[in-house]
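Structure tokens please, single chain.
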Amino acid sequence: MAFEFYIAKTAGICWGVKRAISGAIGKKRKAGEPIFVLGNLVHNRDAVEDLEEQNIHVVSNVEEARGETLLITAHEKSPNEIAAARMVADTVLDMTCPIVEDLHKAARVLKEEGRQIVLIGMRARRHPEVDGVIGLLEGEVHIVETLRDVELLPLKAFTPVGIVVQTIIEGRAKK
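Here you go.
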């Protein structure tokens, strides 16, 4: 039996991450000058190894990039982390995906309107995009990943709710 395989147009790395990788690779720098990335730029071991070969390194905190060039990933970081990066790094390349920026703007507006914010996204694995929203809203957000989470929402009666959704959610809702 013969099989045919088709790759969907959306397979692979999203355009926001591609944009961030291009920004890191295309950054004009002196020979041998490294670029540090605050958190994973891409969740693909082969791609991370390729970036390492191009002197682009993942760090877990801003102090590891003191005096260097530090890139903010497509998934963004909390405002406090970005402020810390600007205090420590020599240069900060903010490669936040415009779609993620839109998510943050919407969440901020809904909070300013006095709404309880519900974010549908990956809580269990603490996706960096979810962490960014948590930091942006200073923890005042309810994360919903499963149908059970919806049942357990501690919403206050008669308070309007604002719902935002993580830009990429893997898998399906679980019961």
